[in-house]
Amino acid sequence: MKGDIHVMPAIGRRWAVDVESTEQSVVFYDTQQDAIAAGREKASRHHVELLIHGLDGRVRERSTYRRNP
User: 66 Cβ partners below 8 Å, 6+ apart?
Assistant: First the structure.
């Protein structure tokens, strides 16, 4: 996986975890906390960046999980 992970608001007061630049399915969660936890785990496992978006859609937090050279 090469795309960064985005946690963002979705329709119906749910939260989505989406992988940038892939055809992978978006996964939906009932709470922001659950979506962030899933996004962190996935970003850490795949050594990519996690971008957490607020309700306004703007990035409010970034975490990098890239491997050290």
Answer: 47, 48, 49
